[in-house]
UniProtKB/TrEMBL annotation:
Keywords: Membrane, Transmembrane, Transmembrane helix. This is PQ loop repeat-containing protein. It comes from Polaribacter batillariae. The chain crosses the membrane at residues 12-32, 44-65. The lineage of its organism: Bacteria, Pseudomonadati, Bacteroidota, Flavobacteriia, Flavobacteriales.
């Protein structure tokens, strides 16, 4: 039980909520646009992508806030910000790696 409370600290939970906010805001924007491509809410990949966003935000939040006990208002806001931006951060890091070309034999 102590391990779970260490892993799921306040910073990790707030980061996960920030990671949940990003796809929900995207969904809200698409609902409000008339000509936008509609999201199929019956599609499992939509929910898997939300789970991936929350997981990535939780991992980055754990790395960033591991061992931090006292959270002030600024730290809580920072934790949500880290959660919202972590999927974008990981995407930009992944695209920064050079792509290897396959050699034809």
């Amino acid at each position: 039980m102590e391990l779970l409370t260490k892993i799921f600290s306040e910073g990790v939970i707030l980061s996960a909520l920030g990671g949940l906010a990003y796809p929900l805001l995207t969904l809200l924007e698409r609902i409000q646009q008339e000509n936008a491509k509609k999201i199929n809410l019956k599609d499992l990949s939509f929910y898997v992508s939300i789970g991936i966003y929350v997981f990535l935000a939780s991992v980055v939040g754990y790395i960033y806030f591991n061992g931090k006990v006292d959270f002030g208002v600024n730290d809580r806001l920072l934790a949500v910000h880290v959660g919202i931006t972590s999927p974008l951060l990981i995407r930009s890091l992944a695209s920064a790696f050079p792509k290897q070309k396959l050699l034809n034999n």
